[in-house]
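Pipeline run #58 for the internal structure catalog. This entry was flagged by the ingest filter as a single-chain record with no existing model, so it goes straight to prediction. Upstream metadata was stripped on purpose; only the residue string is passed forward. Reviewer on rotation: M.T. Logging verbosity set to normal.
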Amino acid sequence: MIKTDILIIGAGPTGLFTVFEAGLLKLKTHLIDALPQPGGQCSEIYPKKPIYDIPGFPEVLAGDLVDNLMEQIKPFSPGFTLGERAETIEKLEDGSFIVTTNKGTQHHAPVVAIAGGLGSFEPRKPPIPNIANYEDKGVSYIIRDPEVYRGKKVVIAGGGDSALDWSIFLADVASEVVLVHRRNEFRGALDSVEKVGELSKLGKIELMTEAQVTALHGNNELQGLTIKYNNGEEVLRETDHFIPLFGLSPKLGPIGDWGLEIEKNAIKVDNSYDYATNIPGIYAIGDVNTYPGKLKLILSGFHEAAIMCQSAYQRIYPDKKYVMKYTTVGGIQGFDGTVKEAKKEVIRSIN
């Protein structure tokens, strides 16, 4: 059985940053994630997608953000159970928990922090009769490596941020980018909508609004598709790739059966203090939680992780007093008593 101070369910950016905040409090951490590598969606879905709202980084690729977080938590030596899903939870008489994965691995901790992002998820697929025949043969629901599309003809469908952002990005990669949306109005960020409009005027993106893809064509691989306008007109287009980006269908999975208070497929927490759930000792941070005014941003998850760890420390050591202060140091104290070399930075020092 694996024992730790804080068991973190989810190894995405919020879960990884929790390791750092817990480490500053000298709390040991262990992470469980169903994916085979840390990073969550940033690693699995869009590692090459630029992110613009991380403080201190005007632009950072999602995969690079994960690499930086992994480097940041090295001094605290977290444990990982990867490729396994947290399945069941048992609360013991002393208030601690045993979490068992779908492969039978047991973890024991006084505090559980659920940082599962959207939970388990799958892409929303458009209702095109033969689309399954072309999956991985020209049809993709996720862009992992933009270089796959270099010099290729690409049709993207969707009207949200992902469709807009990838259309902008691939405009400088693909030989042809067509963005198809069933409405005239887009629901993405205004800046992205304006950028797509500018690229359309420059001829780098072809906009086809009030239309949708209704059929795919090709023998062994995708070679073309039919685009039908709302007025009934149909257009046949040659293409190498079709990328429908209609978002993800999130599911909490087994966590939804743990007795937690759920609202709209998210875990309700107390944001007035520490992001605790209705079960003492279980917290939920990041996109997996909900509360009035919730913003689903990586930045929000980082803040929630810091607050949660303070509460977890008090729960684990109710009689232990500590003083928190800010200081500039040349290293981070590791659990083994050695000083791990690190860049000079402002961190919290616990006395």
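catalog note: Residues 3 and 294 are 32 Å apart (CA to CA).
catalog note: Residues 298-316 form the longest helix (19 residues).
status: ready for reviewer M.T.
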